[in-house]
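Inputs:
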Amino acid sequence: MKISQIAQILEGTFVTGEELSDREVYSACGSDMMSDVLAYVKDQGVLITGLCNPQVIRTAEMMDMLCIVFVRGKTPTPEMVELAKQRNIVLITSPRRMFSACGKLYSAGLQSGAF
Amino acid sequence: MADHVHLEYVVEGDNFVSAGSATESVKACLKGMGVKPEDVRRVAISMYEGEINMVIHANGGKATADIYMDKVVITLADTGKGIADIELAMKPGYSTATDDVRSLGFGAGMGLPNMKKYADECLIESTVGVGTKVTLVTKFSA
């Protein structure tokens, strides 16, 4: 699935990295707990989270993720946007809640990389 | 020519914006040296957890990375309050983190278990009131 489709499905807005929205991602992880992302995630392109602080960007970078979707309308700070820009990580904000965001993407064919 | 690459970082305590920057630097270096992405990620996860721990619990400290042909040795040394019961601290879910730390997405008691899970060797030496030194060895896969 292309990042642009993710934004479309989640009625999301690009905060940064729209020019990278042609990139393909194959799996996703939904979590507000960064330690769990580090513990369980395997090769996942998208992080869906309701947590909004610089460590979200750092965690995504550690896991080589391409895109972060902030649910519940969370808006990243300028500091976070800068961190994401330097790392070529796409940031999307969506009004959807976590459960429905994950459900919509899963129904559309995005998989969970690890079980 | 030196037989390995030595890197050193000062990790600032209680700075949750810069936390992780030492790990990112090591990660970039390993990547640049052509280490396999899976190996790079294993090093990054275990070092990042250790770095976060120093920021949260120990008012920062010093991190080093020694990169050899077949492995990387990370040390994270602090002069914080130390760990009284290392076995208990290793238990998944055990945490002494504050609500502030939890609100950052950490403090779930997964830091030390994650370090152990992803590093091939994980040595924790700690003296209460003196500090903690963590040594993480990750061998590169063939």
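Residues 5-139 of chain B form a domain with the Heat Shock Protein 90 fold (CATH 3.30.565.10). Flag for discussion at group meeting.
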